[in-house]
């Protein structure tokens, strides 16, 4: 994953605004601002923006290549479902794929569901978001969507199926077969974070019914392999989608990528402290950190952020030792062998506990509540 929180816009509102200003060929063509207000009458235009880390160079190479080949194959499946447990890197892979297509001007849209953001925790603004991004891709899309909204000004409040048909599928259906960017790509990340099971099923049903556009559109969906989503895909024809399971990737490949992540992040830590040697913390401890991650990129990121934060106070060695001393009891490991490999929930829980205990051991008892809250936020 990239070291910076890179803003990755497939066709974000800012990019679309710029493109649409060139695309407006007549005086009555609506601006992207006007279009945004029509699509999001209650607000939410920020949903077209997406950000976060992308894969570091020379990491996740095989899985990225596999997905790109699947989605670029003219005879390939219409939908690719990338699934894996929490912390396995699904969203980072999705952003990396989306960024590549955006740079080729072939990303129709990307939408990221999230339990932490009200407007992303349901599918109510999913279609308006991807529509606004699509409108920025070409003047033809922009004009067609404006016409639909002129005839149906209340469509952003209608049933999602009608929105999908009128605002997204119809513009795509107008494309000629020789359109240079075909196929276009739609990336839908973290579908399992939608809090309405009916909406999850509904979104997948929309995708399944859009096969008439399979020469013009390909879809990447990421999620945890939850029952509702597994059943929805199972009910689709097998010729329609390809299942890509991250837990099937060889452990050695995953550990190599996590090792690269640690090396990259620890180099950042060394750059902030003149007292650290060029080989700190040493290969033995680095290998132990990789092993302890048990395939979880979230775990590795948490460890690195914790150590980097404590480095500001010169406490990086204490923080590292605190992490390395956090262990799961052997009987718990025996009971949760599969869970530790797939979800590493016990390991992550213990890491959080150890981080909190470590930080609050260092808290001055005279510290006021506001200072204590700030200390807590270093972990949270």
From TrEMBL:
Question: InterPro entries given for it?
Answer: NACHT_NTPase, NPHP3-like_N, P-loop_NTPase
Q: Which residues form a coiled coil?
A: none
Residue ranges annotated for the NACHT domain, each copy included: 78-225
What keywords are assigned to this protein? Repeat
Give the span(s) annotated as Disordered.
Answer: 1-32
Protein name stated in the entry: NACHT domain-containing protein
């Amino acid at each position: 994953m990239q070291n910076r929180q890179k803003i990755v816009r497939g066709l974000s509102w800012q990019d679309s605004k710029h493109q649409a200003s060139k695309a407006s060929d007549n005086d009555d063509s609506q601006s992207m601002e006007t279009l945004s207000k029509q699509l999001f009458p209650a607000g939410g235009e920020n949903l077209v923006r997406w950000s976060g880390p992308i894969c570091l160079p020379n990491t996740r190479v095989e899985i990225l290549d596999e997905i790109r080949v699947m989605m670029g194959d003219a005879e390939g499946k219409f939908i690719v479902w990338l699934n894996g447990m929490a912390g396995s890197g699904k969203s980072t892979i999705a952003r990396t794929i989306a960024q590549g297509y955006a740079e080729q001007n072939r990303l129709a849209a990307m939408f990221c569901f999230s339990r932490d953001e009200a407007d992303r925790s349901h599918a109510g603004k999913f279609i308006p978001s991807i529509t606004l991004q699509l409108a920025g891709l070409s003047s033809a899309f922009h004009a067609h969507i404006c016409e639909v909204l002129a005839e149906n000004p209340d469509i952003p409040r209608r049933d999602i199926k009608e929105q999908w048909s009128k605002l997204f599928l119809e513009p795509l259906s107008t494309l000629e077969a020789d359109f240079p960017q075909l196929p276009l790509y739609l990336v839908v990340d973290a579908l399992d974070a939608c809090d309405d099971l009916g909406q999850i099923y509904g979104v997948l049903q929309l995708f399944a019914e859009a096969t008439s556009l399979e020469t013009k559109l390909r879809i990447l969906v990421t999620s945890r392999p939850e029952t509702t989503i597994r059943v929805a895909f199972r009910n689709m024809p097998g010729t329609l989608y390809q299942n890509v399971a991250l837990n099937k990737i060889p452990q050695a490949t995953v550990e190599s990528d996590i090792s690269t992540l640690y090396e990259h992040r620890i180099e950042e830590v060394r750059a902030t402290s003149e007292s650290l040697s060029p080989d700190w913390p040493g290969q033995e401890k680095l290998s132990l950190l990789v092993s302890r991650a048990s395939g979880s990129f979230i775990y590795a990121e948490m460890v690195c952020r914790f150590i980097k934060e404590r480095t500001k106070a010169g406490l990086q060695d204490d923080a590292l030792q605190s992490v390395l001393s956090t262990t799961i009891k052997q009987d718990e490991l025996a009971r949760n062998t599969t869970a530790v490999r797939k979800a590493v929930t016990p390991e992550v829980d213990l890491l959080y506990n150890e981080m909190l205990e470590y930080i609050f051991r260092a808290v001055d008892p005279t510290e006021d509540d506001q200072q204590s809250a700030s200390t807590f936020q270093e972990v949270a």
